[in-house]
Amino acid sequence: MPNFVSDIYATPHVRKLLADENRVLAPLLNRCTGSHGLHLTAAHAGEPPAIPLLGHWATVRVAGAHLGGDVLASGLEPLPFTDEAFGVVLLRHALETTARQDNLLDEAIRVLEPGGMIAITGFHPVGLWSPWVARQSRGARPRLTWPWWWSQRLVRDDFELSMPRRLGSAWPRAGGAAAGESLIGGGYLLVARKKRPSAVPLRPRVALSPAPVPGTFASGARRHARETLR
């Protein structure tokens, strides 16, 4: 009989994968700055990587049509944050568990400031992790998607995209040495930067200035010259 678990993201195997993700993410995001970062995650205990130049993290747990963690809201509505509020947005397996994948990515893009970084992680649909996730999950299974799909979305939304990469161990395991990038890793990572709007130069306006009237004219001639200029 399959050994189902109520929360696959709480298993030692996935916690190990999350740690491997942090190992790869931290150096990529070390130069990110800003007062706040947004951590959208499927894991209760998943911690974002430490970024020295970033002020604070807001952590939101995504589970179907519900949002929890630092905010309590509906996953079917826009995120309760203002536009361009965050310098970094991490979607840690969040697109696998949300009820509306495209909407959540749209919202992540909306709250990311120009020049900010977005990172997406998830289970790769090809490999030994995919059947393990299917066997272990109880109820709604994570919806695994190809990373190229999210790559195309980000490019279409005017992001500068780094090459997608696979990471973590090739098969689910709870222990062992820390893993980084791997051609057959069970997870994937996308990192992209939101382009700043191009500066549009203003067209100079031509201002007409009246020609000076020589002071040697007689008073009537000066008055006639002014009337002619008008």
From TrEMBL:
Highest taxon above the source species: Bacteria
A UniProt-annotated Pfam family: Methyltransf_11
Gene3D superfamilies linked: Vaccinia Virus protein VP39 (3.40.50.150)
GO MF, one annotated term: S-adenosylmethionine-dependent methyltransferase activity
SUPFAM superfamilies: S-adenosyl-L-methionine-dependent methyltransferases
Chain ranges of the Methyltransferase type domain: 70-120
UniProt cross-references to InterPro entries, sorted A to Z: Methyltransf_11, SAM-dependent_MTases_sf
Name the UniProt record assigns to this protein: Methyltransferase type 11 domain-containing protein
Organism of this sequence: Luteibacter yeojuensis
Lineage: Bacteria, Pseudomonadati, Pseudomonadota, Gammaproteobacteria, Lysobacterales
